[in-house]
Amino acid sequence: MNTADPILVVGGGIAGLTTALAAAPAPVLLLTRAPGARGAASAMAQGGIAAAIDPGDTAQAHAHDTCVAGSFHNDAAIVDLLTTCAADAVQWLQEIGVAFDREPDGSLQFGREGGHDRPRIVHAGGDATGAKVMEALVATARAAGHITRRAGVEVDGLVLRDGRACGVCLTEADGTRTVVHGRAVVLATGGIGGLFAQTSNPADADGSGLALAQAAGAALRDLEFVQFHPTALALPGLHSLPLVTEALRGAGATLRDSKGRALMAGVHPLGDLAPRDIVARQVWQACRDGGALLDAAVVGADFPRKFPTVFHACMDHGIDPRVQPIPVTPAAHFHMGGIAVDADGRSSLPGLYAVGEVACNGVHGANRLASNSLLEGVVFGRRLGALLRGLSAEAVDGGHYRLLHRPPALADAELVAVRTWLMQAMGPLRTESGLREGLQACAGLQGWQATLATALLDAAWKRKDSLGAHFRVD
User: Fold this and answer.
1) What is the pTM of this model?
2) Ranges of the chain with pLDDT below 70
3) Does 368 participate in catalysis according to the annotation?
4) Which of 12, 26, 342, 395 places its Cα 20 to 30 Å from the Cα of 412?
5) Which is the catalytic residue, given 33, 256, 276, 463?
6) Could you give the 3-state DSSP secondary structure of residue 240?
7) How far apart are CA 233 and CA 244, in angstroms?
8) Where does residue 266 fall: left (phi above 0), alpha (psi -120 to 50 degrees), or beta otherwise?
9) What are phi and psi of 226, to 5 degrees?
10) 3-state DSSP call for residue 295?
11) Which of 269, 298, 430, 337 is nearest to 73 (CA)?
12) Strand 359-360 to strand 338-340: parallel, antiparallel, or no bridges (unpaired)?
């Protein structure tokens, strides 16, 4: 290490970009698989950002809803950090150019989503919040003199010096392998949805960073808790499915079964706006009994303006959501588990930090509350960036260096098999026998995706009782 070594941030989504920006003026090298916002799940987020800004709302009420949704498996102190910093996070995003939707009088417009007791969600561009936030973050990062971006690389190893992370191993698009040293390594690589047969995430959200931390021996946490979004557009044969935002149900859309009956009637006091794990289980079962539909005709002629992303996705597949019900299915959406970190993003491995969906600080508990994910990336990214800003890069001579590589990837056919097994065994409804069969299927495979899948299945198998998104029907 020398005094010029940068902070290495792996991942270019909302958490990685926010961390990189907040670390100024310390030098940052941002390492991504794809340029710009491509490949980042953050850009696909249709939900907004939850924040107690509206008069009469409180951070405490937001925290309560977060813990109820998380089945009180949350770390209460971390939840308080998230909700008390939410208004500042929204203000910061506005300062870097995010134009949130407003009422005719100019005040912020608040929507309501599942699990919230009141409207407190700010959106940008209707259902395009993730894309609008990423657009502003990418533009700000490109203009920031302290950030250097290197795209088109796969980070598949860590450099350790005397047991401390001090660099990463890269594989270029042409297969060239290099080592880059840094004063700290931040994993902001997103979730694991790409490891499931149906996901609302891009295929690149495949748990690569989590697998790297696993290979390095960093502590992991709450791996069994995988959130399924109840309403992805049902398109048989596709892996990455377009999302049908929860905000539609906040606007009055109703879930129905194949016979037209209201799917959530009598299931939960909040009906169609019940926490996601509850809605996902109902939709999952309905899909096995003939299909599930979202009747959003109530939105009417305003559909293209209020929900342009969903509208165009539906129309592209021959569905006019203004007059036709939308076929929906649950899809792997968000991982509440991840690399175990503290409030500042420190992992159990010195020098290695994690932030965003790849990390687990306990804020989401057993099930994430709607529109807390982009918020998490901003709040804890800014917090981690501020910590790293003051991290000195001392010149170091000697020491014992070690290169630690993630295992090779699975062949394509094997990866498809792992996705199928995870979807069957670790979907919204789980059984002892299904989890055991998944473990047996992965046992014979050699590859980092199978190693990670085994850890997920093992965590789910060991938790015998239902909790939040982990629901055992047996």
Assistant:
1) 0.93
2) 1-3, 36-42, 393-398
3) no
4) 12
5) 276
6) strand
7) 6
8) left
9) -115, 125
10) strand
11) 337
12) parallel
